[in-house]
Specification:
Blueprint lengths: L2 E6 L9 H13 L3 E6 L17 E4 L2 E4 L1 H11 L10 H33 L5 H12 L3 H6 L1 H11 L1 H7 L12 H16 L10 H17 L8
Parallel strand pairs: 1-2
Antiparallel strand pairs: 1-3, 3-4
Helix pairs in contact: 1-2, 1-8, 3-4, 3-6, 3-8, 7-9
């Protein structure tokens, strides 16, 4: 049975959500067949069956699961015969910490730098909603945020330090092969490369070398959309 993934979509069918990319990579890791349904910000009625309004959402037979972390746990529990996303309960607990760290440190610091770029990539039908909701959230215009992003860039670069220390000495967070921790951070970098040409990290940063290794392993999954980054 094929799993259905409902994921965020912008103009020109650009799939850019970091959380949906986590789920795509988790499905690929498990070797599961899936199809995708594009959801725009104004298409929330299409996922009303999940009793909430955010993607990713998956349908697996009669089962419905939302939230990238919950989906990863569901896939691990439902398909134990397939490659593990976590590598055991202890590793799962540490991965949950990594998940929260990425959300609260990396993504939190990246959003103000890139939100104006996201506006340029959303579908035309979503633009009014996106601008109004994000300007209300930040208490300023998207243009003002955009104009000050060079000042915020060093804080984002510094936030990568814990991850940088790990991938400097090993191929992946999982050791010789990627695990869900790798997919968590890769989802963020995939989001950034698909919606912005802004240089967040220097080319010689160990995080960029790790990203290159991820593409070597997962190019067919990651490389099917034209990137905007440098």
């Amino acid at each position: 049975m094929t799993i259905t993934l409902y994921e965020l979509c912008g103009r020109e069918d650009r799939r850019f959500s970091p959380y949906c990319w986590r789920t795509r990579l988790a499905l690929a890791h498990k070797g599961l067949d899936y199809e995708t349904v594009p959801i725009r910000f104004c298409d929330k009625n299409l996922i009303a069956f999940s009793d909430q309004d955010r993607v990713p959402v998956i349908r697996d037979g009669d089962g419905v699961v939302n939230d990238s972390w919950s989906i990863a746990c569901y896939l691990e529990d439902s398909y134990p015969e397939r490659p593990s996303l976590f590598g055991g309960e202890a590793a799962k607990a540490m991965t949950r910490f990594f998940n929260a760290w990425t959300d609260n440190e990396i993504n939190f610091k990246a959003v103000p730098l890139v939100v104006r770029d996201v506006y340029e990539q959303v579908d035309d039908a979503d633009r009014d909603y996106f601008m109004e909701s994000r300007e209300q959230r930040f208490g300023m215009s998207l243009d003002t945020l955009h104009a000050t992003r060079d000042d915020k860039r060093p804080a984002l670069q510094a936030a990568f330090a814990p991850a940088r220390a790990i991938v400097r000495d090993r191929a992946f967070f999982g050791g010789d092969a990627p695990v869900y921790a790798d997919y968590i951070l890769m989802g963020t970098l995939q989001w950034l490369r698909l919606i912005s040409g802004y240089r967040f990290l220097e080319p010689d940063d160990p995080i960029m070398a790790w990203r290159a290794r991820m593409f070597d392993r997962l190019g067919p999954v990651l490389g099917d959309v034209a990137a905007l980054d440098r």
